[in-house]
Each structure stands twice: as structure tokens, then as C-alpha cells.
């Protein structure tokens, strides 16, 4: 069992890290608005609470640094100290030191804080004024005499993960019981199973809700990051953050953190121009970087937009051909979206000249793989000279996915809805063979179409994806999926319904088959394979280009 002292320590660290993120955000705001009394008051409150909490639990180094910073900000607040560049630098370093101390509370190898830095803080505090040292002692934050316990409970994410897995197992059994009750046609069993369905659904959403965090907990880290990268690059950047209150699964946010950091750094380093270059182009000297979140049905849509130099599509094609990612012939027939999708290909990131021309390409395959791993989607849109936008569609939960069920050759399959654009029925005569593959015209857009039975079951030597004679019936049910700026039509035998499914990993040796992302059990007891849309799309594109 975990000791009470250890639990208190974990709660303190969780709160302290939140304070650290908030301090970074507020000090960045204060640098732009040095006369903001509201921001100063919030910084002072955070430091005062951090000082008190760390002293109570015995982290005296954190308490000492918090006290020095608290006093310095009280001097600024009382107009006894100017928020100058020199002072800003020391205070930023002081905030960094706080973060370092918090992250290393359990690290036995962590040494003493930097004594040069501590002396600088002392100089700011001691040599300018001592009339406000007692400010913290007389400041009254709460005059209430009633005792009240906090309504907030900190719980480890692994406990919620375990609960989510149990709920997933329960959902599978629930659907099975519901199916059996229908088959037996027993009214009492139907009533009980219907009630079980509602209770299980409420439990599922309750656990999923408990895992949600505000996306602002990640967004709040970026003002400081943007400031540091922009300063190092000699650029001026105005960061706009929109949608702090949008909620998302904590695990998904954790997986996305590094990817978003990479995209933000890339946008500043390579996408946005330096002030003189921007002015020469008729732009404002200050570059604009906008990071926005919004709810999109059951998903979260993240957009990162810059008004920088954009992407040179011709240069992307040339480099892709040079790197032998595609043939020169294939490059000529590519649409703009297909060209942009090349940026996410492994091996493309080594192209130094693309980084210089387009500001993109370094490690974007890693970003795409991270988003693929959580069942999300990423796309890019760009206009040369005007800027670039990355759009990321993320699921609300990893464990439970909305899926479309269908059948191919008497086998049940599912496709996650996040990759499903639309479902259409086309006459066989509306499919045309071009270059050994089938294509369809959908609202003016040409989409390649694949007979899924042929792709999944036929030996590669006999596979002919462009042979219409192999299709069953005259009318074809086609699921249009989208991945990496590309669309692909999948012809299936029968379409069923949309349904929430719990995806379980395949056991060996089936887990080695890339095109399957897992398996689920339907209420009828039938096994249903879950298609991995990224893998299917990659396989087809590689075969087509090969």
C-alpha cells in the first residue's frame, strides 16, 4: 500500500506543476503588459501558495526560491521595482529554477540550485527595498473561519486506465446479453438487459468524463516556448491561443504534447520569416502563430496556423523524386493534396533544401505516427508566401471508438469513424479503369477505388485491383476513407450500422499483420476485425507507386 505521505507528495507535485505552467504563462503576459495589475496579482498569489505548500511538506528549496520571487514581484507590484529587461531575465531564470526543483524532488542525484542565479534574486530583493518583505505575512487571502475540504481529488491516470479497460469488457458482455435477450424473446430478460445497457452506457461516459482535462493545460506551456524559440531565432511572434476550455482525454493530450511542440518549433524556426524579410514582402514585422482547439462532434479539432512563407509544392515534388520516394511520372500526375502528403513520408525529413524552401519536413513522419497511434488524423494546407495550417482531428477516447461495421466475404469488419468521410452506392458502370486501378468521380473529385475482398484475400500474384469483372452485383457499396491528405474508396459486400466498439489487441501471430488494428466482439458473439486505415492506405499507395 502507498503511504499517506507519498500520496500527499504526489498531490503537491501535481499542484506545483500546474502553478509552474501558470507562472510561465502569466510572466509572458506581463512582459507584454507590464502595467497589468491583474496579472501581477495572479503571479503573486501563485508564488505565495507555492511557498506555503512547499514549506508545509518540507521542500524548503522550493519554498525559499518561491519566497524570493514572491518578494520581487511584490516590489514590482508596488512600483518599487521596474520590470526591465535585466529584471525580466533573472525572473524567467528564477521561474525555470522552480520548475527544475519541482521536477527533481525525488531525484537523489540532483545537486544544489545555481548559486549565481540565487544571488541575482537576492540582489533584486534585498538591495532595492526591504519595506515590502513583510507583505506576504499581512496579505489576507481567505477571511472565512469555516473549515472546508477541497472538492478536488487527484487520481493517478493508471487507475482510470484500469477502470476504462473494465468498462470495455463490460460493454462487450452487455452487447452479448442484449443480443441473447432478443433471441430468447423473454420480456423480463429484455427489461433487465435494457436497464443494463443504460447503466453501462452511463458508467462508460462517467469514466471517460473523469479522464478529461482542459486542453489549456497543454496550451499554457506554449507562450514561454514561443518566446524562447523566437528570441533565439531573432524573430517576433504573436501567439494566439484559442479554446483553452476544450476538454480531451488526458492520455491523448500526453501523446500529442511532443508532436505539437515539434510543429510549433518548426513553424517559428522555418515557417515564419524574420522581421525584415516579412516587411520586404509587405507583411507586418511580427509573425502570427495561432493554436486553436474546438469540439467537432465526438472529436477534438486542433489547428496550428502560421502566416509565414508557406510550402513550395514544386520543390517538394523535386525532392521526393530525388529521394526516390516517387517516380517522376507519378509526381507529374499528383494533386496538390497528394504532394503535401509527401511531407509525412519517412525519409523525406532528411531533405535539407526542403526545410529551407518550405519550412516543413523535419520529422513530420514522427508526428503522423504519433497521431496514427491514437486513431487520429492530420492534414496540411498551405499557400506559398501566405502561410501553412496543420489540422489534427483527435478522438475523445482511445479505448472506445465509434466505428462503421460492414461485411466482406462473410467476414465482419469495422472502420473507425474518424477515418470515414462518407458512404456511397455507385453503379458498376460509374467505376472506370485507369492505369490498372478503378476510379470514381465524386462531386467533381477523382477518387481511387479498391475492392476490399481482392485487397484482403487474393494472393498478391493474382491480385488485379482494376478488374471490374470480379465485383459482386451491379450496385457497389463504397466507404470513402481519408488519410494523410488522400482519399480511398473501399468496396464492401454489405454495410451495417455505426456502433461504439472496444478495440482489443490481436494475439500472435496476427498482431504482425499491419492492415488490422485490432479486434472486437459483436453482440452476436461474432468476431469483428478492425481495419487500420493508415496501413491499408499506405499499402495500396506503395503498391500503386511500385
Automatic annotation (TrEMBL):
Domain HPt: 1-105
The UniProt record lists the keyword ATP-binding: yes
InterPro entries: Bact_Chemotaxis_CheA, CheA-like_dim, CheA-like_homodim_sf, CheW-like_dom_sf, CheW-lke_dom, HATPase_C_sf, HATPase_dom, His_kinase_dom
Cellular component, GO annotation: cytoplasm
Record keywords, A-Z: ATP-binding, Chemotaxis, Kinase, Nucleotide-binding, Phosphoprotein, Transferase, Two-component regulatory system
Pfam families, A to Z: CheW, H-kinase_dim, HATPase_c, Hpt
UniProt name for this protein: Chemotaxis protein CheA
Domain Histidine kinase, chain residue ranges per copy: 195-398
Residue numbers bearing the Phosphohistidine modification: 48
GO molecular function ontology, one term from the record: phosphorelay sensor kinase activity
Entry keyword Oxidoreductase: no
EC number: 2.7.13.3
Cross-referenced SUPFAM superfamilies: ATPase domain of HSP90 chaperone/DNA topoisomerase II/histidine kinase, CheW-like, Histidine-containing phosphotransfer domain, HPT domain, Homodimeric domain of signal transducing histidine kinase
GO term, biological process aspect, one: chemotaxis
Annotated CheW-like domain residues: 400-542
Reaction(s) this enzyme catalyzes, per UniProt: ATP + protein L-histidine = ADP + protein N-phospho-L-histidine
Role played: Involved in the transmission of sensory signals from the chemoreceptors to the flagellar motors. CheA is autophosphorylated; it can transfer its phosphate group to either CheB or CheY.
Amino acid at each position: 500500500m502507498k503511504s499517506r505521505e507519498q500520496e500527499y507528495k504526489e498531490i503537491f507535485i501535481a499542484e506545483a506543476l500546474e502553478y509552474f505552467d501558470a507562472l510561465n504563462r502569466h510572466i509572458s503576459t506581463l512582459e507584454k503588459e507590464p502595467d497589468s495589475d491583474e496579472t501581477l496579482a495572479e503571479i503573486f498569489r501563485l508564488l505565495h501558495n507555492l511557498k506555503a505548500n512547499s514549506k508545509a511538506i518540507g521542500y524548503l528549496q522550493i519554498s525559499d526560491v518561491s519566497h524570493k520571487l514572491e518578494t520581487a514581484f511584490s516590489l514590482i507590484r508596488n512600483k518599487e521595482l521596474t520590470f526591465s529587461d535585466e529584471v525580466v531575465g533573472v525572473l524567467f531564470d528564477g521561474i525555470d529554477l522552480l520548475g527544475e526543483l519541482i521536477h527533481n524532488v525525488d531525484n537523489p542525484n540532483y545537486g544544489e540550485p545555481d548559486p549565481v542565479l540565487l544571488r541575482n534574486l537576492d540582489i533584486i530583493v534585498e538591495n532595492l527595498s526591504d519595506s515590502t518583505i513583510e507583505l506576504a505575512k499581512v496579505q489576507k487571502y481567505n477571511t472565512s473561519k469555516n473549515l472546508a475540504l477541497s472538492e478536488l481529488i487527484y487520481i493517478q491516470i493508471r487507475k482510470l486506465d484500469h477502470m476504462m479497460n473494465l468498462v470495455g469488457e463490460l460493454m462487450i458482455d452487455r452487447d452479448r446479453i442484449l443480443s441473447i435477450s432478443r433471441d430468447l424473446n423473454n420480456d423480463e430478460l429484455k427489461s433487465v438487459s435494457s436497464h443494463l445497457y443504460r447503466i453501462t452506457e452511463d458508467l462508460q461516459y462517467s469514466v471517460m468524463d473523469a479522464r478529461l482535462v482542459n486542453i489549456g493545460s497543454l496550451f499554457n506551456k506554449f507562450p514561454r516556448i514561443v518566446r524562447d524559440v523566437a528570441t533565439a531565432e531573432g524573430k517576433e511572434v504573436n501567439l494566439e491561443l484559442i479554446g483553452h476550455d476544450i476538454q480531451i482525454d488526458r492520455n491523448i493530450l500526453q501523446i500529442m504534447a511532443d508532436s505539437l511542440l515539434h510543429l510549433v518549433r518548426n513553424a517559428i524556426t522555418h515557417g515564419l520569416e524574420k522581421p525584415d524579410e516579412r516587411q520586404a514582402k509587405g507583411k507586418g514585422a511580427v509573425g502570427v502563430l495561432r493554436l486553436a482547439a474546438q469540439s467537432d462532434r465526438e472529436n477534438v479539432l486542433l489547428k496550428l496556423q502560421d502566416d509565414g512563407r508557406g510550402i513550395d509544392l514544386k520543390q517538394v515534388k523535386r525532392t521526393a523524386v530525388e529521394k526516390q520516394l516517387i517516380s517522376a511520372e507519378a509526381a507529374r500526375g499528383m494533386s496538390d493534396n497528394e504532394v503535401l502528403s509527401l511531407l509525412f513520408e519517412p525519409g523525406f525529413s532528411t531533405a535539407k533544401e526542403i526545410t529551407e524552401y518550405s519550412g516543413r519536413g523535419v520529422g513530420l513522419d514522427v508526428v503522423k505516427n504519433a497521431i496514427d497511434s491514437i486513431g487520429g488524423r492530420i492534414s496540411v494546407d498551405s499557400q506559398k508566401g501566405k502561410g501553412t495550417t496543420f489540422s489534427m482531428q483527435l478522438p475523445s477516447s482511445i479505448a472506445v471508438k465509434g466505428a462503421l461495421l460492414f461485411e466482406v466475404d462473410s467476414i465482419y469488419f469495422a472502420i473507425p469513424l474518424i477515418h470515414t468521410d462518407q458512404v456511397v452506392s455507385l453503379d458498376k458502370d460509374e467505376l472506370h479503369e485507369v492505369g490498372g486501378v478503378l476510379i470514381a468521380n465524386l462531386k467533381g473529385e477523382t477518387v481511387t477505388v479498391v475492392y476490399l475482398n481482392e485487397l484482403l484475400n487474393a494472393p498478391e500474384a493474382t491480385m488485379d485491383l482494376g478488374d471490374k469483372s470480379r465485383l459482386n452485383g451491379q450496385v457497389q457499396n463504397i466507404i470513402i476513407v481519408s488519410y494523410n491528405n488522400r482519399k480511398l474508396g473501399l468496396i464492401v459486400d454489405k454495410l451495417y450500422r455505426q456502433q461504439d466498439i472496444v478495440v482489443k489487441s490481436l494475439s500472435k501471430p496476427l498482431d504482425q499483420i499491419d492492415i488490422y488494428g485490432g479486434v472486437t466482439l459483436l453482440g452476436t458473439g461474432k468476431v469483428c476485425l478492425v481495419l487500420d486505415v493508415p496501413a491499408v492506405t499506405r499499402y495500396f499507395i506503395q503498391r500503386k507507386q511500385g
